[in-house]
Amino acid sequence: MSRFTLIRERVFSPVGLHAVGFSVLAIATLLLGIRVGLDWRATSSSSLDEMAGMQAQLRTLELQTAPLRGLDKKVDLSRTQIEEFYAGRIPPSYSAFLARLGDLKQKAPVQLTRASYTQAPGSGDLTEIRMDAGVSGDYVGVMRFINGLERSQSFFIIRAMALTGQQSGTVNLRLQVSTWLRPADAAASGLPIEGDSAPNAPEHPAAARDGEGQ
Known about the structure:
This protein is α+β, with helices and mostly antiparallel strands. The protein folds into two domains: 3-63; 91-211, Alpha-Beta Plaits (2-Layer Sandwich), CATH 3.30.70.60. The protein has helices at residues 3-11, 14-65, 71-89, 94-107, 139-151, 183-189, 205-211, and strands at residues 111-119, 127-138, 157-167, 170-181. The radius of gyration is 46 Å and the shape is rod-shaped.
């Protein structure tokens, strides 16, 4: 019996066939394990990259939304501050505005002449009230009146101021001052609207009284 024949008989014997089958399975299992390992490594790397990208996006969103944190509290605080400003600095009525001017005028003391009052056109949360008047008195009194306007709790803005004359210690100024009222209070004042098409709009009675005898 030749050696080839002997090998063939051993290979094709039940034991040989089992050995061959086991070897094929072992090789297949090894190749499959290598393939799974490579796929897992690629998948793991991709997942890590994706996770890193998501974390970067999360950090970016956190930075972008940081200014919005506590926005509701900031809005409530701003609303409270606005209401406090309105209550403390905005005259509650046109008569209160005139009373404050009269108080400052008496304390200076100065005289207001040719005083006229108008509403600025436009609408909004507040309506501007403008006063255009002559102010006369000694230098100290005029400066005291101007300082009183600037430091008043009521919100006054001096728009313009011009010297119109000085004689025997008396200083004469033309003064333009603005304050603001709530729209309803401004409407109730009956003041003419500046630039109204109605010709020769009459001076407000309270303004006329303020200039009488001065």
